[in-house]
Specification:
- The complex is a heterodimer of chains A (about 450) and B (about 400).
- With about 450 residues, chain A is α/β, with parallel strands linked by helices.
- Chain A is built from 13 helices and 17 strands.
- In chain A, strand 3, helix 4 and strand 4 form a beta-alpha-beta unit.
- A two-stranded antiparallel sheet of chain B has the order 1-2.
- The chains are: A alpha/beta (about 450), B mainly alpha (about 400).
- Chains A and B meet through helix 1, helix 2, strand 7, helix 7 and helix 8 of A and helix 2, helix 6, strand 2, helix 10 and helix 14 of B.
């Protein structure tokens, strides 16, 4: 009776299987995440290589909570590398308040429930002094109730869509006004007034595009079209046809695609004859590691907006890049989220030293207003728990590195509640003043 | 049929104005046809292997996407090998990659069939779950494969299967089988693990560094496949033309193979009636293995082709597997012609809806135009295509070309 069953059953089972695939696929897809790309180094999956020099009394535990397996491992492993680098540097110089830092690395496995579970474990069982972690907005939203409920502390290193300001989180990545908005301004000034918006179909690109559209309207630009690709989709022919129709003589493409779709988008743009001189693409999720994975041939001449590029010319950056390559291999590159992750470990150390205790409330208070000479330049932790950061636009060169074409003169102050979006217009955040808190109506 | 009708409508709507704007209209028409066909050909080439494995053999192979992924990774490896060769040779790496991808995927398919699927014929649910598991294993394999892991797997296979082979020769094999497994299995795992750990500690990164890692790898098409052939203000991408050519070659090859050769005859006989074929002396087990390997090899070729368009990473297969099943089911299980028509219709429909062309055509009729404008983004177009497919399968549950014959509803 081999092979003898009805087609209806076939289709039914096949359909069930497909539905399963789709659902699983959807569940494991990232929230807000570029396809970044560390080569996985065995050192990353274990505790830091500088083992605690003394017994428990002389070490302080911190948690590192990122995805080391699953879809997001691609991006998050390199962030863990950067955090481990900062920790081993601090330990080599004597640690924090005389104690060596011991990192407890937990794997969130690209599964948001698991993130929450591991966060609880780190806080309750390991009694860590703080947690460095998360990449996608989805994972951050999943652990947020844990950190708020236990009044603990999370440091979050990735650029995100804003519209959040928790007392228990320190955000060291860019808020929209430190990445997206300056990029739009620069494009309006240098590249053209007509924008086509392309993004992946989930919360970050849609929020980002809402902001961009409002901004273009306010500043005399024009949105000629927008389209969203489901995550993981590789077929961009219809989008390219639309772009050509909407912008027959060339124009600006603002790209908030994430992950695999980026590769398909740039490959097919080139073969359809849409070149960087007439159709410059500004990306906000393509950094050094993605350039390597997409292929430089397809990206030459396009742009990206970040706070940090490996090519930033500061003494702090030179040290950072050199020590990273020394620890993980010369072929490795660093990118913006990695730099933000490196910063946040040092920021926490400084806050602890200023507070002279590991006690959470004191550290939280102490961190407001701290400045750090980061690889990107001097950054300051503002009262709204976001960093003021430098904004840069880079053009991708033939060597896969970014040529910085625009750079803010000073660090831009973060605005977590977006001022272009009607619901949050006029709101601000200030944790230094208990009366104001996470969301208050600022004076107009 | 509805889709074809829409296409006809789309074409005919242009004809009255042809006299006035012929060059522009012609190029627009050409663009629509070409883009529809190019989306269709990608669907078709990815579904071709499945049309054989699922369509002819009836195996629900959820690891089909991962076989494509292996093809894509093979392309990456061949590309890197050719980078070390002098320039003119590098431009033609893609042909070697196609062949290598076919072989790698076919061998993997063969192992998969002999090792897993042959025990599960006629049990679709188990096949579904087993191949789903295999797909996860293959994904993790490309993420973590390194020299150390490869050596460990080789040692394990040698010890375990070699040991089993030796014991099998004993006359009292059946009696001691379970006990033997209980001893050999942990022993071979322990030895291979010990060796790999020892190697990793002695030689460090050279042994334990993953070859590909979890990140995407870059496959860059050779120079001559990167541009396009300009027609008016439109450009026919060479990579798309190349994929169409491969698709046509594969199709013709399979058709000739199935219809004109002895093996093809056997495959068709076995898939139509296994018992009768066995009675007539056809070695059905060999035919099964061979057919599955052929289908898997085609998946490898598809993987090589799509690496020209999209990303190559551990998730590559997942991005395609749903579409390929959709194509085969719509086309009618068991018929190549159905697969072809289904792929081209779905491709054309998704292009026309997704690019907003339909909205333009229906511009005079405001509500209809609004309706199509709403669906004119890629994700919404996908929704509409799925809705059309569901409607279509309500009317024709067997697909475009249902299999005729007495065993249809068995």
């Amino acid at each position: 009776m081999a092979n003898q069953f009805g087609r209806r059953r076939f289709i039914l089972l096949g359909g069930a299987g497909l539905a399963g695939t789709v659902i699983l696929n959807a569940c494991t897809k990232p929230g807000s995440s570029p396809t970044a790309t560390p080569s996985n180094d065995p050192a990353t999956s274990t505790s830091p290589d500088t083992a605690p020099v003394a017994a428990n009394g002389n070490t302080v535990k911190v948690g590192i909570l990122h995805s080391l397996s699953g879809t997001m491992a691609i991006s998050e492993k390199s962030v863990v590398d950067a955090e481990q680098l900062a920790i081993s540097e601090i330990n080599a110089k004597g640690g924090v308040l005389g104690k060596q830092i011991e990192a407890i690395v937990e794997d969130g496995a690209s599964d948001w429930d698991k993130f929450a579970e591991k966060a609880k474990k780190l806080i309750d069982q390991d009694k860590v002094a703080t947690v460095f972690g998360c990449w996608t907005s989805a994972s951050r939203k999943a652990v947020l109730p844990v950190f708020e409920g236990k009044k603990h502390m999370l440091w979050y290193p990735v650029q995100y869509e804003g519209q959040e300001c928790s007392q228990n989180v320190f955000y060291t990545g860019a808020a929209p006004n430190q990445q997206i908005e300056p990029a739009v301004d620069w494009l309006l000034k240098n590249k053209g007034k007509e924008f086509f918006l392309v993004g992946s179909d989930y919360v970050f690109p849609r929020t980002a595009n809402t902001i961009i559209k409002a901004q273009l309207k306010a500043k005399g630009g024009k949105t000629v079209g927008e389209d969203y690709l489901p995550l993981g989709n590789n077929e961009v022919t219809p989008i390219i046809a639309k772009i050509k129709k909407a912008l027959p003589n060339g124009g600006v493409i603002f790209n908030t695609l994430n992950g695999d779709s980026n590769v398909a988008f740039f490959k097919q743009m080139q073969s359809a004859g849409l070149k960087a001189d007439k159709y410059p693409v500004m990306s906000v999720s393509v950094a050094e590691e993605e350039v390597k994975a997409i292929g430089v041939e397809y990206l030459k001449g396009h742009y990206a907006s970040w706070n940090y590029f490996q090519t930033v010319n500061t003494p702090a950056n030179k040290t950072f890049v050199d020590s990273f390559k020394k620890k993980y291999g010369a072929e490795r590159v660093v990118n913006d989220p990695m730099e933000a992750a490196y910063i946040m470990v040092y920021m926490w150390k400084m806050a602890v030293e200023k507070a002279k205790t590991f006690e959470l409330e004191a550290v939280r208070k102490a961190s407001n207003g701290l400045t750090f000479d980061a690889p990107e330049g001097k950054v300051t932790m503002e009262n709204n728990h976001h960093l003021s950061k430098f904004v840069r636009i880079g053009e991708i060169g033939a060597d896969g590195m970014f040529k910085i074409v625009s750079e803010s003169k000073e660090a831009i102050k973060p605005i977590p509640w977006n001022q272009y979006v009607a619901e949050t217009k006029g709101f601000a955040c200030d944790w230094s003043d208990p009366a104001k808190g996470g969301k208050y109506k600022a004076k107009v | 049929v509805g889709i074809v009708l829409m296409l006809t409508l789309h074409l005919s709507s242009y004809s009255p104005s042809t006299i006035h704007y012929s060059p522009i209209v012609l190029s627009g028409l050409l663009e629509a046809i070409f883009n529809g066909m190019s989306i269709g050909s990608v669907l078709l080439i990815s579904a071709l292997g499945l049309a054989i494995v699922f369509g002819l053999m009836g195996v629900i192979n959820l690891a089909h996407g991962e076989l494509m992924m292996l093809g894509a990774y093979t392309t990456f490896v061949v590309q890197n090998i050719f980078k070390t060769f002098p320039a003119p040779l590098f431009d033609f790496y893609i042909f070697f990659a196609l062949i290598a991808a076919f072989i790698v995927a076919a061998v993997t398919g063969l192992v998969l069939e002999r090792g897993v699927i042959r025990f599960l014929y006629g049990r679709p649910l188990e096949t579904l779950l087993a191949t789903w598991g295999v797909s996860l294993i293959l994904q993790q394999l490309v993420r973590s494969i390194s020299l150390g892991l490869l050596i460990a797997i080789a040692i394990f296979s040698l010890l375990f299967f070699g040991g089993m082979w030796l014991i099998k020769r004993r006359p009292d094999f059946d009696r001691i089988k379970n006990g033997a497994i209980a001893i050999i299995l942990p022993l071979s795992i322990a030895i291979s693990a010990a060796v790999s750990i020892f190697l990793a500690q002695t030689y460090g990164l050279t042994i334990s560094k993953p070859w590909f890692g979890a990140q995407n790898v870059d496959v860059t098409a050779p120079e001559w496949l990167r541009g396009g052939f300009p027609v008016g203000d439109f450009q026919l991408p060479y990579s798309r033309l190349f994929i169409m050519a491969i698709t046509v070659i594969c199709l013709v090859g399979i058709y000739l193979f199935l219809q004109k050769t002895n093996w093809g005859l056997r495959i068709r006989a076995v898939t139509q009636n296994r018992q009768m074929s066995a009675c007539l002396g056809i070695p059905t087990a060999q035919v099964d293995a061979f057919t599955f390997a052929l289908g898997s090899g085609l998946a490898g070729v598809a993987g090589c082709a799509i690496s020209l368009l999209g990303s190559v990473g551990p998730n590559t297969g997942q991005n395609y597997v749903v579409d390929t099943f959709m194509v085969v089911v719509v086309g009618g299980v068991g018929k190549l012609a159905g697969t072809i028509i289904a792929a081209l219709s779905i491709g054309t429909a998704s292009y026309l809806i997704g690019s907003g062309n339909l909205a333009t055509i229906f511009a005079p009729i405001q509500p209809v135009a609004d309706f199509f404008t709403f669906f004119a983004t890629t994700s919404m177009a996908k929704v509409m295509v799925f809705a059309l497919i569901i409607t279509f399968l309500q009317i024709r549950p067997g697909g475009i070309f249902p299999q005729k014959g007495r065993n249809v509803e068995l």
